[in-house]
Structures are given as structure tokens and as C-alpha cells.
């Protein structure tokens, strides 16, 4: 097989063309399509054209929040690493991941709940508008739902793409029953790479 | 759908059981199976049971190198974040990612090649045994092949799981034509999450 001679600066553009050609006609808005393309770009998994759901004016609401300097709270340090912080910070936002915090580990052990759930509680203390980017733990989504329904948090939106086999499908269905703006990968798939890709796609549309 | 009541400490074990049940009979060695399970665990993508190739005594060679304190060089900061550095450092190893280094950016721009290719050259300067963990750039694999054939580097092994649409399939096929110990995700799929998962699976078998 022959290596295609292509300049580094053109690789992403060519990749997106190939993904679009492979996808064919889709029924997304142009903004949603950019998000779907970037999720496929990071995974080479075309299932994301089927499973990504955009609810409650999610792209507009989350993008507006990011454009206005909202912070991001994520449940995975890999997503934190993958999110384009230069773009985010140019808008006034920061990414927080509390997963490795000692107080989170202690509280989770004491109550025998996941660290991710405790991280969502810690997010309630932030004095800024928040977008959640959940790429790992379904328990994070479940705790966000509880905190939202208890009036303790009111995020601008959620990127809800935890991955896995225990309570992942169920947690996504539960969060989808709320009126929160959300981009959810229905089913088992997702991950920190998908969470970062979805956020980055919106950042690239803004700046 | 009902949320399963499960203790945080049991989630991973239960996930692995579900993956094994879903996979059914496979023809991997027990060590290879642990790697496949962890790749599926991080992606919920069962294609990794089909596309992961273990060549030239890869698991034994790479695991032995890691057990003896080899360093890891990766082309993505997300993989660096995802690799269990506590385990790696307990064995005497470190993870290097040169992608954000200013000298790498300058050299890549000057020669109009990818930063990932320049990073592989920079790895030649390390005075330790190296395992490569490539989760993003096919050009990294191509440059490793050239450097190996020129006698400039002799890595203990490669985790070769770049993802994408331009030269990804081709670069993997080319590296598979070498005699280097390697774990490669044939086809377009892979990513930083898969690179970290494959490395971590080996670390968890060691310590």
C-alpha cells in the first residue's frame, strides 16, 4: 500500500473530507455535523453518527456558554489534557478535573461512592457558569441529575459521553430525561477522547 | 432502565466479566486477552478483538522491558496522561511526550514534516531502553521504521495504534513488515485511549 504524499497542514482537512464522503447524507445541522465529524475523526468509529444525540438546543446553549467564558468540569484527566485550553482560555474559561484531589478520594471512600460522583458535588462550589464534559463515569451523570433536580447546580449544558458496561446505558437514558441541554452518545460508547473532541469542535466553531 | 447497585470497587471487575461474556471464545493467549479486554473496556468497541495484532513476541518483549525500567515515548499528551505513571515509575520508567516542545515545532515547520516525526528523532537521544506508544500519528510509525532500519534506534517494542484516515492503514502495514515486537491495531482505529489502555494492561500484569 502506498503512502499518500500530503503536507502536515493538510492532513486534518483531508481526513474530514474522507469522513464526510464515507458518511454520505446525514440529517444533522451544520454545527451538529462538525461535532459528529470530530468524534469520528478521533476514533475512526462511524457509530458516533448514529449514537450522538443533541437535546434541548444543546449546541447553541453550550457554545454560547463557552463563548461567554464558562468553565468546564470533567471526570477525566485525559479529557482535560485533550481539550484545547489555549482556545478555552482565550474565551475566559478553564477546565477543572477534581478526580485526583485527595479530599475527593477521602470523601468517596468514606461514603463508598465513586470519586466521579464526589467531583460533581465539588463542582457545585464553583462560582461560574459550568459545562460538564463526562467521558468516563456514568455515576457522574447520575449525580449531576440529582444535584440539578435538588436545585444545587444549573449547568449550561452537558457533554455526556461516558464509556463502559455497568450502568452506562442507563445513566445516559436518565440524564436524557432531564431538560438540560446535552450532547449524549447513546449506548455504551464514549470516552475521554470523545468528550474532548465534542468540546473542541464547539471551541473551533467559536474561535 | 434500572441502575445496578454496585460498589465502586467492583465496577471494573463486573465490566471485564461482561466484556468476556460478550466476546465468547477467543484465540488469544491469556496475556493478549488481558490487553484486548482493556482496549474494549476503554472504548466499548469490540472491533479491538478483531484488529489487535501481536507480533514478534510483543507482549513478552514489551512487558519485560517495562519490568526492567524502560521509558515510554508517546506522540500524544492524552496517552501520557492516561498511562499509569505510579506503576511505571515504581518499575523505574518514565513517559516522554515531546509534542508540545518548542524545538520540535520549529524543526517540523522548517522541514515541513509532522511534529510527531520529529518527536521520534528526539527519542533517539534518550539513553534508556524505549517502548513507543503511538496513539495518534501514522507519521510517527513511518519515522520509527526509517530510524530503526538506519540503525539509529532499537526500541524494545511498539504499541502502534494511531487513529485516522490519511496513511494510517498504510503506516501500520509498513511497521508490521519489520521484525520489531509490536502490538498494532490494524485498520483505521486506535487512539490515545487505546495506546494508554494497552500499556496499562501490561503494567497491571507486572505490578
TrEMBL record, chains A, B:
Pathway, per record: Cofactor biosynthesis; adenosylcobalamin biosynthesis
Highest taxon of source: Bacteria
Keywords in alphabetical order: Cobalamin biosynthesis, Isomerase
Pfam families: CbiC
Residues annotated as domain Cobalamin biosynthesis precorrin-8X methylmutase CobH/CbiC: 10-205
Family affiliation: Belongs to the CobH/CbiC family.
Protein name: Precorrin-8X methylmutase
Provenance organism: Christensenella tenuis
Amino acid at each position: 500500500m502506498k503512502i499518500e504524499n500530503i503536507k502536515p497542514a493538510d492532513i486534518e482537512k483531508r481526513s474530514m473530507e474522507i469522513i464526510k464522503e464515507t458518511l454520505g447524507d446525514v440529517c444533522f445541522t451544520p454545527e451538529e455535523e462538525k461535532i459528529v465529524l470530530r468524534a469520528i475523526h478521533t476514533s475512526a468509529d462511524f457509530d458516533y453518527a448514529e449514537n450522538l444525540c443533541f437535546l434541548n438546543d444543546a449546541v447553541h446553549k453550550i457554545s454560547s456558554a463557552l463563548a461567554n467564558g464558562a468553565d468546564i468540569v470533567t471526570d477525566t484527566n485525559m479529557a482535560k489534557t485533550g481539550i484545547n485550553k489555549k482556545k478555552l482560555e482565550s474565551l475566559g474559561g478553564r477546565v477543572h478535573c477534581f478526580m485526583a484531589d485527595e479530599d475527593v478520594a477521602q470523601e468517596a471512600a468514606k461514603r463508598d461512592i465513586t470519586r466521579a460522583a464526589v467531583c460533581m458535588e465539588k463542582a457545585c462550589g464553583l462560582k461560574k457558569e459550568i459545562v460538564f464534559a463526562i467521558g468516563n463515569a456514568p455515576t457522574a451523570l447520575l449525580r449531576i441529575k440529582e444535584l440539578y433536580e435538588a436545585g444545587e447546580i444549573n449547568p449550561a449544558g452537558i457533554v455526556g459521553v461516558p464509556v463502559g458496561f455497568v450502568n452506562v446505558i442507563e445513566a445516559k437514558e436518565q440524564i436524557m430525561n432531564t431538560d438540560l441541554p446535552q450532547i449524549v452518545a447513546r449506548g455504551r460508547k464514549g470516552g475521554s477522547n470523545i468528550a474532548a473532541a465534542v468540546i473542541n469542535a464547539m471551541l473551533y466553531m467559536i474561535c
